[in-house]
Amino acid sequence: MSEIRLILGDQLNEHHSWFSTTPDQDDAVYVMMEIRSETDYARHHIQKIIGFFLAMRHFAERLEAQGRKVHYLRLHDPRNRQSFTANLTWLVQYHQATALAYQLPDEYRLDTELSQLSSVLQIPVRVADTEHFLSEREAVQRLFAGKKTYLMETFYRNMRRRYGLLMEEDRSTPLTGQWNYDQDNRQSLPPTVDIPPVLHFEKNVSELYEEIQRAGIKTIGRLEHSTKFDWPTTRAEHLQLLQHFIRHRLHAFGTYQDAMSSRHYLLFHSQLSFGLNTKMLHPLEVIGAAVSSWREHPAVISFAQVEGFVRQIAGWREFMRGVYWAQMPAYADTNYFDHQAPLPEFYWTGQTKMHCLSNAIGQSLDSAYAHHIQRLMITGNFALLLGVRPDYVDQWYLGVYMDAIEWVELTNTRGMSQYADGGLLATKPYVSSGNYIHKMSDYCSQCPYNPKEKTGSQACPFNSLYWDFMHRHRHLLAKNPRIGMVYKNWDRMDELQRQAVLQRAAWIKENVNNL
Ligand code: FAD
Ligand code: SF4
Question: In what side-by-side order are the strands of the sheet with 69-73?
Answer without folding.
Answer: 69-73, 29-33, 3-6, 99-103, 125-128
